Please model this.
Amino acid sequence: MPNEKIALFTIFGGTGDLAQRKLYPSLFKLYQKGYLQEHFAVIGTARRPWTDDHYHEVISDSLADLDADQKIVDQFASHFYYQSHDVTDAEHYLTLKKLSEKLDAQYGLQGNRIFYLAMAPNFFGTIAQHLRSENMLTDNGFNRVIIEKPFGHDYASAEELNNQLTATFNEDQIYRIDHYLGKEMIQNISAIRFGNNIWESLWNNRYISNVQVTLSEKLGVEERAVYYDNSGALRDMVQNHILQILSLLTMDQPVEFTEQDIDVEKVKALRSIRPLKPEEVADNFVRGQYADNGDVKAYRQEDKISPDSNTDTFVAGKVMIDNFRWSGVPFYVRTGKRLADKFTRIDIVFKRPIVNIFNHDDVRANDDDATSLEPNVLTINVEPTEGFELRMNAKAVGQGFATTPVKLNYAHDSEATANSPEAYERLLHDALNGDATNFTHWQELASSWKFVDVIQQYWDEHTPEFPNYCPGSMGPDASDELLQKDGHQWVYKN
Ligand code: NAD
Model:
């Protein structure tokens, strides 16, 4: 049996979508695996006047897909308590405090508290402030707060939110969720880089031509229209997930594989990103918005979206990192909705051999000039397939001496993947352990927002020609042109 974790969870937004789809199933899996046993309790709060019995039914329903033994589900649900609560009302925190103290005594929770803010971000500051003014934090155990994205709308609002949170919690008590950091293959980036000399010794501008990060979604905005229309792809995906992935790909080797040492290296990598001047934005970042194609509606025709919305549903960009390791290597990133397929992948494109001895007519090429030899590409498949691919040149079978590209392929087997924890389960487990390695720290966020703000401001001041890409494509033509003008191309094409 694993080490039991002891804590009281208070979930603000306990009736919401995130709580029901992600948090309750993840807590249940931790229960099934024995990380949570007798000494845990959960208070779900929201405005609706639910009873504990009704709450238990909701918990049970949220686990329906897991096909678990009903007796175990009922035992698990019996640890859940519902408290109707308006987060703006100070009185309600007193009731919450009493319930917390009662459950602490009843379950022997040793004053350990995890506050999960699964609510709209405009409430984060209010909740943190009340937790302090109503003395909800304990002295005898740990107090941790888990914050959902988005963390701010730009640098100024992120800083304001951070100031509100740090008035109650220290930085080491704040766990800012970026669920990409909970994904198996994102965590694998460090394993392959620092666990394999062949990669780490090539992981620099002498051997790497360019790096491509693609987070592609097939769906449109669905139920998130109101939030999304105020955000757009740049803020929703690039500022957080993509820049976090870049920091893991580009950071130097941490002294030790610990939260503090990794954070130091990630911050250094993010601070080395070359900031764009407003006049450089159009040359380096492309935005898009999907049209209709007969089968699916255009973004501007979606429910709750204004017919003249200029929100970006696609972004492609070129990021340069000004340090000794990466100078001169473009990092191309792209993400969007209504693209060809749902997947996340990272392509590391190596430089070609300097001379192609197999073809005497070929030019003596320096790095990316055309030779008939394809570049080696290491692909990290993050989802839905989890694994690696390596493209190499080999001799074509038969007479003569022609070269042909071949692929080495590794994918986690489906049984291992099915049993591997989902991002939220992993992150909740980390938070219980006091390990914030896979959460975003403030200095990382600050650097990311400063980079993204320049692009967003430039876009806000210039009207785009939208819509500009077809559903089912990989975005507007300008995204391909972004690479072509550097002599590169996307490894993944539609
Ligand atoms: P939701 O709208 O489904 O749930 C919001 C919850 O807040 C509900 O329980 C509601 O009752 C409660 N609430 C609203 N006003 C309240 C008040 N004044 N007092 C008390 N409770 C109040 O939202 P969601 O989709 O669960 O998202 C929650 C957070 O998680 C948001 O920050 C969102 O951006 C983030 N998030 C959600 C998802 C997802 O998959 N749903 C994914 C990533 C991030």
Notes: The radius of gyration is 25 Å. Residues 362-370 have pLDDT under 50 and may be disordered.
